[in-house]
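Researcher: Sequence recovery benchmark, item below. Answer with residues only.
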């Protein structure tokens, strides 16, 4: 049985956040275009450039000291945060660790006084979508994307953090 730990991200995690998420989506969702690689590397780069330890965070999951997943929060304004880069290595899925990362991110948002949070995902990620529903998120926007190697429906999911229900 492996030892799972979650720690704050460090500068040397940036490449992992980029290449591993790109690789997982290439393998599992067919996102094999240069547009996909460019998108994910640009989004991680933007996260790092805007990173402010007082209002942003990223958690790195480790299994026996080896990186095995990620979850990040980035501020969009004083009241709104975006959840980003949630992924867990395939062998650790269905253990509850992805949900733990997700809850840690939402708890971080609440602790920083954010009133609203949102995320973008793709419609075919059924397990992730069930998690978002359980945590109270609602779909607020959809769009079609043909730039990542296969056509996908992107979805924006929002959560009002001031709603106590």
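Model:
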């Amino acid at each position: 049985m492996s030892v799972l730990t979650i720690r704050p991200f460090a500068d040397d995690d940036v490449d992992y956040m980029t290449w591993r998420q790109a690789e997982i989506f290439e393998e599992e969702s067919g996102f094999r275009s240069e547009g996909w690689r460019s998108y994910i590397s640009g989004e991680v780069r933007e996260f790092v450039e805007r990173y402010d330890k007082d209002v942003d965070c990223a958690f790195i999951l480790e299994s026996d000291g080896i990186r095995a997943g990620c979850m990040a929060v980035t501020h969009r304004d004083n009241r709104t945060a975006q959840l980003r880069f949630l992924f867990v290595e395939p062998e650790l899925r269905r253990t509850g660790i992805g949900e733990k990362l997700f809850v840690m991110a939402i708890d971080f948002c609440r602790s920083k006084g954010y009133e609203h949070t949102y995320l973008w995902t793709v419609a075919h990620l059924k397990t992730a979508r069930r998690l978002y529903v359980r945590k109270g998120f609602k779909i607020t926007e959809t769009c079609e994307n043909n730039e990542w190697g296969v056509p996908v429906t992107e979805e924006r999911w929002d959560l009002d953090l001031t709603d106590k229900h």
